Amino acid sequence: MNARCRVMTIGAGLLLASAAAQAQAPGELDAAPCSPRYEASVPLTLPAAVDLALCHNAQVHGAWAGIKLQAAGLGEARAAYLPTLNAGVSRVHDRTAYPGASTPSSSLDNNTASLSFSWRLFDFGGRAAGQRSAQALLDAALANRDAMLQKTLAATVSAYFEAQTARASVQMRQEYQALANETVLATQRRAQRGLGSHSDTLQATSALAKAALGASRADGDDRKARAVLVYTLGLPANAGVTLDDAPVDSTAGLHDALHAWLALAQARHPAILAAQAQLAAARERVAVSRSEGRPSIDLTANVYQNGRPNQGLSAASTRETLVGITLNIPLFDGFSRHYKVRGALAQAEQKEAEAQETQQQTMMDLVKTHAEANTALANLVASQAWLEAARDALASVQRKFGLGAADILEMLNTQSVLLEAQQERIRCQADWHSARLRLLASAGVLERDDIRDGGGKSGGKLRAPTAQ
Asked: Is the entire prediction scored with pTM above 0.85?
């Protein structure tokens, strides 16, 4: 009994180790170990943010628990191929009374022992189907874990870039406020030289107040974005976050055709693989249900010492050995197996519909993300050209305004255009960062290495790998 327990324990341990080895396969997403504590003074990079999110996300931990659960289920399915051995030992006191006899009673004390061996030899494929179903469920759990990691990565990337965008907006608004303040000083100097009126100073002062209001609102948006990022990372609510400066990414790449991304997602997306594995498990459960209504053959062996359990004792010491082969033929069970098979078939149909829906939803998300990424890249280039033109226009107007060749309205309009160009530039940069990584996530191939520099492994060029 102890030897069997050790064998089963070792087998379960090897199975969990095998599942863990599959989970740690190269190319998959693995969360780095969490640091003992987060240093708020250290700039938070995107890879570090991803590591924190993967370490503290409760759904990721739940996915790992699901893998262990299905690994145990696979071990249980494999155990059905092994024989079972049971032993029993008991101390029996047998007292017999004889009313009216010269000897009123007799008693007998003895030790009984039994050993039972059972091994199923044939069952029309029920155990094989059960093992295949358990293996499919384990594959589904692994794919679900990958899908959860993809979801966590995408959420972290989105929250991180929103926080960076909010911080850039604060800096831009502060610069605009400083520019508006310089304009007020310039109008005052013009008025002292007789080149401007008091109304020019009032308009410039009004623009300065508007810039201060915009800076205050940007600061509020920044605090809100940081709070969302802290929640996404699983840090305490009062934790401070110092964001790292975003690297300047290349605008090249993203020229692969949509059909290549669709083929890649269909072959490798974790959500699709998980749904397909669930469908395979449901189909195998149909075979398991059908096999329960078919004959099976068992090999049994029993050894009894000093009688059988719960039976009377004899005065003499005995040993009984039984060996037999049993053919079990189910004849009638009230149609329970019939309805069980129908239920398994209905569940398989349901899983098939869910797999189709998951694939369609994934493909639709990928089509949208691919279009958004291409649009974001085009907008990024256009926003840079607009920003450069707005800066040149402001520099020209400032020179003219200093010489008295431009009025305050032209100066304020030019500053307003520069503000709008800067806002669009920041927005386009954030859209490009996020869309590029979300495209990888939508295709099911986003890895931690892909966010090291905020872009793909090709140095900022996003190209879909060839679908296998």
From this structure: no
